[in-house]
Amino acid sequence: MTEQVHRIKIFVYRFRGTQPDYLLLRGATSESCWGPIQGPIGFGEKLETAILREVRDDIGISRPDDVVDLHLPGRWVLGDEEVIEWTYGFRTPPDRLDLRLSPRWAAARWSSFTDAYPVLELEPDRAALLRLHSLLKAA
Q1: Which residues are CB-neighbours of 101 under 8 A, at least 6 positions away?
Q2: Which segments within 2-51 are labelled E, that is strand?
Q3: Confidence at residue 76, expressed as pLDDT on a 0 to 100 scale
Q4: What confidence score (pLDDT) does residue 99 get?
Q5: Which of 1, 22, 49, 62 is deepest in the core (most CB within 10 A)?
Q6: Is 113:133 a contact under the CB 8 Å cutoff?
Q7: Nearest 10 degrees: Cα torsion 28, 130, 82, 56
């Protein structure tokens, strides 16, 4: 029997003038790569609650200016687990520079799209960043 595991990925962004900057994090383990905030969705937990919890716990921001559903769910099977991943954008005010980084993250950096896209090692993360950037530029 396959157990479903729901996870969330959140691309935090801010506007500096007319251009968005994206927050990239690198995990504290030696094999980690740059990417968005990510974590589990608890049993019975709403997506919005999971987004707010993960962002608050990982970088200390408790309220978004906007949350964007990227409509880009991911799904794959790992052994007896089926992982379902939901991807969102989370807009924070441009003056919010005081991140309180959780110990699970070793580093954080704000990057433009042209700097962020090539350092993302996972194709689903690149696709999500491209979708978010396109949505923001179209708005």
Answers
A1: 25, 58, 59, 60, 108
A2: 3-16, 19-27, 34-35, 37-40
A3: 87
A4: 87
A5: 22
A6: yes
A7: 50
